[in-house]
Design goal:
The chain contains seven helices and nine strands; from the N terminus they run E-H-E-E-E-H-E-E-H-E-H-E-H-H-E-H. By secondary structure, the chain is of the alpha/beta class. It is globular, with a radius of gyration of 16 Å. The model has no long low-confidence stretch (mean pLDDT about 90).
Length: about 200
């Protein structure tokens, strides 16, 4: 890989499957892969940093981004908050030949498939339904009502697995991350013009 446009990889899967954990592992071990930072109207969870984990924006700012065509995709998730992918940074990194990973929900993945059909679509699956429930309850970040809503959403999301090009089972974060990067062909740092480090 050198200078030519890179291929976008979209990672999606059910709630609580560990998309954020795998993405954080990519960020830590494969720093040359650029992770798109989603904009969201939901408040930060403990430990989340604006501009690193998400761009936390007001509903009004989100409305303006949608109206100005600044989002590659956006959706209302779990019937409450909106999430979206700023278009400009994704296109800039791909044009520069940088591997780009987009971690989004199912609705967003479908929108990206419609606008960027050449992207690589990877479904992150849990080892089992029971393990997915255990992870969601174990997070302790949602109320009982929110957990029930997320589990209902997860049932629908799991049924979408056949829509994806590849499936990676998140039974072990390191193994799942490596499998994802193998699919991207990005486990070795590309020689990019002007790349620091």
């Amino acid at each position: 890989m050198s200078g030519g446009p890179a291929r976008l990889t979209v990672l999606a899967g059910p709630t609580a499957v560990g998309k954020g954990t795998v993405s954080a592992d990519v960020r830590r071990r494969y720093p040359w892969v650029w992770l798109s930072v989603s904009a969201t109207t939901r408040p930060p969870r403990p430990g989340e940093v604006d501009g690193v984990h998400y761009l936390f924006v007001s509903p009004e700012r989100f409305d303006a981004m949608v109206a100005d065509g600044q989002l590659l995709e956006w959706a209302v998730v779990h019937g409450v908050h909106r999430y979206g992918t700023p278009r400009g940074p994704v296109e800039e990194h791909l044009a520069a030949g940088v591997p780009v990973l987009l971690e989004i929900d199912l609705q967003g993945a479908r929108q990206v498939r419609a606008t960027m059909p050449d992207a690589r679509f990877v479904f992150l699956a849990p080892p089992s339904w029971d393990e997915l429930v255990r992870r969601l309850v174990g997070r302790g970040t949602e109320s009982e009502e929110e957990r029930e809503r997320r589990l209902a959403t997860a049932t629908v999301e799991l049924a979408a697995e056949p829509e994806f090009d590849h499936v990676v089972v998140n039974d072990d974060v390191t193994r799942a991350t490596d499998e994802l990067l193998d699919l991207m062909g990005a486990r070795v740092a590309p020689a990019l013009p002007g790349r620091a480090g």
